[in-house]
Design a protein that fits this description.
This protein is α/β, with parallel strands linked by helices. It has one domain: Rossmann fold (3-Layer(aba) Sandwich), CATH 3.40.50.720. The protein contains nine helices and ten strands. It has helices spanning 13-22, 44-47, 65-86, 106-119, 136-143, 161-173, 191-201, 217-222, 238-243, and strands at residues 2-6, 26-30, 53-56, 90-96, 125-130, 148-152, 155-156, 178-179, 189-190, 207-211. The strands form three sheets. A six-stranded parallel β-sheet has the order 2-1-3-4-5-8, with helices on both faces. Helix 1 (13-22) crosses helix 6 and helix 3 packs parallel to helix 4 (106-119). The radius of gyration is 18 Å and the shape is globular. It starts with a strand and ends with a helix. The model has no long low-confidence stretch (mean pLDDT 94).
């Protein structure tokens, strides 16, 4: 199969590309660095020529609901329109476990809006929801520099991005299934504890201040971001991931 990966140079996308290539598929990487811009639509038609399936792992760094919603819905609509023109038979979207249960968080509402665009599309689709990646605590720590690190009180089951990438590759190579089983990590953790362990492993001293996100604190503390059904579970724990240097 010829499979395109939107965001194929990103945290998860690069693992999707690697997994597909290991399985013998031909891969087209959709990224601005490769001359393809899903925001404007530039280069999409040429990039999707003879493509059988598309995996969308695109992300935006802004947590502002308006900015995130505009990005996710625009890129999805542009991808899907180009897929219709190219005759693509399967669209796979990477989403987040619990986005519809923690709807007080603007970024999650943006992902729900993106899911709605995909579900209403003419291209057969699969939505794969994953729990937070092992990289997530580091991303939050990096967003607020200084001696005090703000971290949400959050029950989670962190998962290795490589394992999510392999699962997305499997889903893309199979027929569209609609809502796919959720993928999660091997065990439940507290996000504040992960941040402290990450800082300790890096030899850095910062005071981690647990907070409740406005509108979502109770959801995050109560397990809204944990999977609520059967599905694939990763095997790499956060501590194992740390020991390998975050690979």
């Amino acid at each position: 199969m010829r499979i395109a990966v939107a965001g194929g140079t990103g945290v998860v996308g690069r693992h999707v590309v690697a997994a597909l290539e290991r399985s013998g598929h031909e891969v087209a990487v959709l990224a601005r660095a490769r001359g393809v811009d899903a925001v404007t639509g530039q280069g999409l038609d040429a990039a999707l020529d003879a493509v059988d399936a598309v995996v969308d792992t695109l992300n935006v760094t802004s947590l502002k609901e308006r900015v995130a919603t505009e990005f996710f819905t625009t890129t999805s609509r542009n991808l899907l329109a180009a897929e219709v023109r190219a005759g693509v038979e399967h669209h796979v979207l990477l989403s987040i476990v619990g986005v519809d249960r923690a709807s007080g968080y603007g970024y999650y509402r943006a992902k729900v809006a993106q899911e709605a665009v995909v579900r209403a599309a003419d291209v057969p689709w699969s939505v794969v929801r994953a729990t937070q990646f092992h990289e997530f605590p580091g991303q939050v720590l990096g967003a607020v520099p200084g001696p005090v690190a703000i971290m949400p009180r959050m029950r989670c089951r962190p998962v290795a991005a490589a394992e999510v990438g392999s699962y997305l590759a499997e889903v893309a190579a199979a027929p569209a299934q609609g809502t796919a089983p959720e993928i999660a990590g091997p065990r439940e953790e507290q996000m504040v504890d992960l941040a402290r362990r990450l800082l300790r492993a890096q030899g850095r001293r910062r005071w981690v201040l647990p907070i409740d996100f406005p509108g979502t604190g109770a959801d995050f503390r109560g397990g809204a971001l944990l999977p609520d059904g059967e599905g694939p579970r990763g095997s790499v724990t956060f501590d194992e991931w740390l020991r390998t240097g975050g690979a």
